[in-house]
Amino acid sequence: MLHAWGDTLEEAFEQCVMAMFGYMTDTETVEPVDAVEVEAEGHDMLSLLFHFLDEWLYKFSANEFFIPREVKVLYIDRMQFKIRSIGWGEEFCLPKHPQGTEVKAITYSAMQICEDEKPEVFVIIDI
């Protein structure tokens, strides 16, 4: 399970992406040599979180094999359920980046976005 939080919902989403990549490798070994933008949209906030994480996972799983050192959410549109983000990192390379657990998919199972005090998100991933 991914559990992330921040002072803002944007920070909680950023930390959730980094927690997911933390399963895959030690992100401290990643150098911020390239920048990749990720945009996603949904029909509500939960689907937005799902698609946001799924788009980042796709950047790793597809041809790019991109792994971020840092992710910044540029904005979340809570009316249209859209998000735009940028990540700084590099292509995954086994000699440099230790191999962790493969993340196969994001799931909706028990997914939560809590904004009571500090924003928190909970996401179960399929590994």
- How helical, in percent, are the residues? 25-40%
What spatial form do the alpha-carbon principal axes imply? Answer: globular
Mean pLDDT: 96
Strand order of the largest sheet: 1-7-6
Which structural class best describes the helix and strand composition?
alpha+beta
Computed over alpha carbons, the radius of gyration is: 14 Å
Unreliable stretches covering 5 or more consecutive residues: none
**Sheet with the most strands?**
3 strands, antiparallel
Order of helices and strands: EHEHEEEEEE
Q: Give a count of the beta strands, DSSP E runs of length 2 or more.
A: 8
- Strand fraction equals 35-45%
From the N-terminal CA to the C-terminal CA, the straight-line distance is 10 Å
Total helical segments: 2
Walk me through what this model shows.
By secondary structure, this protein is α+β, with helices and mostly antiparallel strands. It has two helices and eight strands, in the order E-H-E-H-E-E-E-E-E-E. It has helices at 9-24, 45-61, and strands spanning 2-5, 34-41, 66-77, 82-91, 105-106, 112-114, 120-123, 125-126. The strands form three sheets. It has a three-stranded antiparallel β-sheet with strand order 1-7-6, with helices on one face. It has a three-stranded antiparallel β-sheet with strand order 2-4-3. Strand 6 (112-114) and strand 7 form a beta hairpin. Helix 1 packs parallel to helix 2. It is globular, with a radius of gyration of 14 Å. The N and C termini lie close together (10 Å). The relative contact order is 0.28. The mean pLDDT is 96.
